[in-house]
Each structure stands twice: as C-alpha cells, then as structure tokens.
Design goal:
single chain, 457 residues, mainly alpha, Hydantoin permease, 76% helix, binds phenylalanine
Length: 457
Amino acid sequence: MERPATSIHGQWTTRWAFVLAATGSAVGLGNIWKFPYIAGENGGGAFVLVYLLCIACIGLPVMMAEVMIGRRGRQNPVNALATLAKEELAHPSWKYLGWSGIAAGIFILSYYSVIAGQAMAYVFRAFSGVFEGVTPDGAQSIYDALSGDPERLLAWHTIFMIITMTVVARGVQHGLEKSVRFLMPALFALLLLLVGYAANTGEYFNQAVSFLFTPDFSKLTSEGVLIAMGHAFFTLSLGMGAIMVYGSYLSQDASITKVSISISIMDTLVAVLAGLAIFPLVFANGMEPGAGPGLIFVTMPIAFGHIAGGQFFGGLFFVLLVFAAWSSAISLIEPAAAWLVENKDISRRRACVLIGGTVWTIGLLTVFSFNIGQTWTLFGKTAFDLFDFLTANIMLPLGGLFIAIFAGWFMKQSSTTEELAIQQPIFYYGWRILIRYITPTAIVIVFLKGLMDAFGL
Ligand code: PHE
C-alpha cells in the first residue's frame, strides 16, 4: 500500500480550520461537565496544577504523535497505521490499534449522545423558566423525571444522533468544517459571557479563583493525580484516532507542533473558563464543589434558579454544553465513517446511516441504564458505567500507550523528523524523549493503578 499524498475525503481549507475542528473535538462534556466536578472532588488548586502538567508533558506529545501518524498515513486510522507499519517494516497487526480506536469511538458516542441529549432537554427546561426558585429537592426531581423516563431520553438521544450524523454525512469541508467554524467561536463567546456574569458575584468569584488556582497539596491524593492524568487523555480526545483522522485532512505545510499547542491551550482554557463560570455560582449558593457528576444537571439549575437573569443565562449555559458535545461527537464517529468510505466503497451518507444506526442501538443500553435497566449490572456496574469504564479507563490509555510506542519506537527517527519538521533540535529531541520514555511509563502507571483501584487490589 503506497502512502497517498492527500486524503480522498479532501482537506481542511486552512490550518486554522483544522485547529478549530480539533479544538471542537477536544472541548466537550469532558471540559464543561467533567472537569469542574473532578476538580471539585479532588480539592481544586493542586489537582488543577497536576492536570495542567499532564496536558503539557503527556497530552501534548501524544497529540503530536497522533496528528503526525494521521497526516503521514493520509487515511482512516486503520489504513494509516497499516500503511505506515509496512513502510517502517513493522508488523501489520499495528492496524488493530486503529480498530480499537474505531470501537472506542463507537462505544463512547453511544453514551456521550445520551448525556448530550440530557443537556438538550435542559436547554428547554432552563429557557422555559422551570428552574426559577427551585429547591435542591426540586432540582433533583426534575433530573430524576428526565433520566427516569426512557421515552424522553430515547427521543433526545435520537435527535442528538441525527444532528451528529447529518454533519458527518456532509464530509470534511461542507459538514465538519462549516459547523465548527460557527460552533467554536459561539462557544467561546458564550463562555466569556457566562464568566463575565459570574465575575459580578464579587467575593464568590474571588473564592472560586482561589479554589481553582491556590494549590493545597494536602488535599491531593495519589488517586487524584491519576484522575488528573487520565482526564488529560479524555479531554484532548486522545488514544482513539479522532485527532489522527483529523490530522489526515491537514495540509502538509502546517506545523504539527504549533497546531497541537494551540489545541491544547484552547482546550485547557475552556476547562478553566467553565470552572470560573460554575464555581462562583456554586459558592454563591452555598453548595458543595465536590457534589460529583450531578454538578451540572442538579446544582446548576439551583444556582440559575436563584440569580437575576438565571432563566436566560441558564438556557445559554446548556446551549453551550450541547454545542461542545456536538463538535466532539462528530469526531468520535469520523474514524469509523472514513474507514467505511475508504474500504467499502459506499457513500458518506450511507456510511453515516449504518454507523449512526449502530451507535444509536448500542446507546439504548445507556438510555435504559438510568431507568428500567438500573438493575441490569455486570461487576456491579450498569451499562452506562461499564461503557464509561471500558473506554475512559481501558481503551483510551491503552490506545495512547501504543500510539506513543509506535511513534517513538517503531517509526524511524528520519520519518518523524521529516513529518514533524521541527526547526530547533532541542524541541524535536524533547518530544522524542517524552514519547519514548516518559509518556509510556506514565500511562502504564495510570493504567495499572486505575485497574487496581477498580478491582480493589
Ligand atoms: N474530548 C471530548 C470531551 O472532552 C471527548 C472525546 C474523547 C472526544 C475522545 C473524542 C474522542 O468531551
């Protein structure tokens, strides 16, 4: 298999379009829903500091490796890895790394879509004023009424899947690029507006700033360090080929280092802005920062229900969450869509119907795990918990590990030098040391510790 010079799916029209699309992939429920609550649960400042370190020392080198492999292979992750493995005289089974990524994307989207569907439902609840003056019990019962109703969850899951597959079906330039050009700036604008609003809370804003940025290492456990490291993978969309397939549409003259740094900075900025938008409201209403995964769906409505303009700002907040989830969702499914189009000679539209249908069907398990299927458990976990665990704690870290190993140990130094085209030797060798030694070691530790914790060893 010869390496194609360009992808058959076309290219991003500009380097900036790629940065926007990849940032759209990275910024999602992970930043706005997950980051604030895990930062809250792990004591704030010190956790945030470790998370930032992990983004810089582990996330960034793996992202550069993924973009590099994607752009050099110019195909979906399976074919790109097969082609590069052949060229580097490595074993053909490296293509299975692409397969595990495609599978991870399908599994993640199956539950991601259900959570994003809940966010869509909340857009309407927030704008219609349901949260006005709501009590904590009231907010909980609004959430329970939604998640306990399989029909409603199913309807929102279906709508979210349809809008996701519609964008993917339209392809690189017409679908992905057009939507993120509009989505990403809108997201930044909305977030800044919400932070500006939160800044008006005065002392509570200061409290939130010191909570997030004053490290208190006595509050950080070793498990917290591992959670921070694991989240760096999830939030940057690494380890499953999403960034790799986006890289396959990147023009040859773009600097992989620069685009990767831009994406990492923007992703981190959104997480921090989300924290700054959320925590002042949490403190202003005397709530617990460590309230857990319900922080958004239960706590935010209470907060918005008691502040001036809360109906409007609450609505905007959930609109923002849906936008962020949408642009991540399209990247979760792009590796599978690209594989079908490249290998099965079918149209993008048909590919999307096929995969969309598959993801939608698997998603039913998550829909039911919140209600009628709450008792269908395996190892004490519901279907939703299992998908989350299997993907975030097993598939992504393993994917990231093997990507690092392939880029660091199986690709010739001349190939990576050529593709990365870094001018200053010190930066190239910095990357190489990270990807060969530091990153794999760190991932192995995260992975083993995560599994040991999960099984109580
Ligand atoms: N990065 C996305 C988020 O933070 C999730 C994601 C993971 C998207 C893996 C694509 C691939 O929500």
